Amino acid sequence: MSDDADLFEASLMLLAGTTQLHHVPAGGRGRDAWSVVGACADGRLQAEFETEPAAARFTDVMHAAPEATCRTGRRVAGIRRRYETFVVDIGGAEPSTVIDRLHDAWTRNAGLLLDDRSADGADRAAARQRAAVVWRSALLTAAPKVSATGLRLRTRDRSSARLLVRSAQVLGVASKVRTASGFQCIHVEGRGVLTLLATVRAIPGPVG
Nearest-CA neighbor of 61 among 22, 101, 21, 27? Predict the structure, then answer.
């Protein structure tokens, strides 16, 4: 894929990973989702993921931001139930420089997807690729649940939920979204799940 597509994927994963790290309901009333990015008290830029493949994919697509370096470590948390997460420290440049580059990529590519004209004409192929990237990043970072009733995942960020629903639409798949306990819950039913997974697997890179 192009560096721009990789930057977009990195921006989606950074947004998801930073929201996870700070356990903040990003995108809520009066709050921009990007306001939690880079909010570590010691000034470091980090992203936290539940799985090693997600951390590895984030590190891989960050090559599109050559000024940044990534180092992955493991963190064990929990009291009654211990669990492991994977924290990526992003260095090599000022956090604001990296955040600005990824935020620009997010704004540019999300705008392409959310434009109703993107499903037609010359932008169609680019929009479908970006839509598949949106869903791949979500499948890696949002702990999706697949059952007989379909595929479900949730996000704290309203803008990410909006992108997921629109991206499914661009890929020809119907989805539903509802709010529950502060999360945006997205549900894809029936054959839409197979269509979605097949489309995502057709682009280079891993799928959760």
Answer: 101
